[in-house]
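hiii, so i know i said id send this last week but things got crazy w the move. better late than never?? heres the sequnce for the chain we talked about at the cafe, plus the structure i predicted for it. fair warning i was half asleep when i ran it
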Amino acid sequence: LLACAATLQLGCLLEAELARQGLSDVYLKIEEPLIRVLAKMEKDGVKMDLDSLRSFAAGLREEVQQREEKIRAMAGNPNLNISSPKQIAALLYDELQLLQRKKKGNDSTDEETLLSIEDRHPIVREILEFRAAKKLLSTYIEPFPGYISRSDGKIHTCFNQALTATGRLSSSNPNLQNIPIRSERGKEIRKAFVPSREGGVIMSADYSQIELRIMAHLSQDRHLIEAFNSGLDVHKATAAKIFGIDSSEVSAEQRRIAKTANFGIMYGISAFGLSQRLSCSRAEAKQIIDDYFESFPAIRSFIEDTLTAARENGYVETIFGRRRFVPDVNSRNGTVRALAERNAVNAPIQGTSADIIKMAMAGVDRRLSEAGLKSRMVLQIHDELLFDALEEEIDTLKAIVVEEMENVVRLSVPLTVECDYGKNWLEAH
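okay and structure toks below
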């Protein structure tokens, strides 16, 4: 009874504090409706094809072994421990002299360092591929079978609703939101996510460039807004502005540069960071950033205004009023301050995206119940929703999901959703 009374008292205190900070709507309209939705998703789980996982694991083990042998042969050292950062550092810094030792020590062999010297020796790419395959195997593929329930053959991940600073959901036991699906190997993991019923399919619904669209809305940049409202290729339109050419003249390389800049600017990328991603000099990267802000002055103003508000208030807000506190934005330590500034700029964008998909999930769940559909929402992967669906319901399901996701909020630019389905998660893309 004491515990119940204490919980009630605490609830009253927290309710008053939410109201005092103007956060009642964030809780009542976004977070509270999602609690039951996530509980259902955790209970339903997602079906895994164990044979597919085992087959993929066997292939990865073979690849790891082959790359290990190849790297040792290239290094001329049959006893080289490729998993040892110390031995890899000795190889790259001393034997091959691809990098220079630092006076203070701490000679890194991390991914960013290796990518910066990838073109100097073929062994570097082999080391990167070895690490990627081994990490995929040890972090994801091998642990997954241990999480599969014997009673229903499903993984019942835990969705953490109030863990991240931005408002994004996270996933644990296991983490199904962090599978490295950008690589071809990572994509193969999605083959193992399958429907749980006969006549079933997996349907994916994914917001298209939602964070860029939110940045266009928040900054009110007329060029980005026009590009999205006209249905243009926004990266090509950005490249045309940066390079001062017609969009029809934009090359694939120029579009790649613009795409990298578009997403990098949202995360407060530095000239050094951009130079690493584009494999260009720091001076060239700085010029690209300068040209970007000259072409999109409203985005520069948005960033400056956001940082000013962060310094004055100690926090930034999403469109819906969710706050992220950034006390270090006024730190005297330049490194600490720079990180806080990047978080301050990105939080209103990423946090708004998180709020939008949370509200969409509640709307989708309600509509599925009202329609009496047997199809179920089983995963959320940041900007994507995954459904364990019946093929006979797919047209109705798709119509409901797209309508709810695209109309959950009205911005200066349209929200668009890409939706497809297949025999597994990979085929749904």
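btw The first strand starts at residue 46 and ends at 48. thought thatd interest u
miss u guys!!
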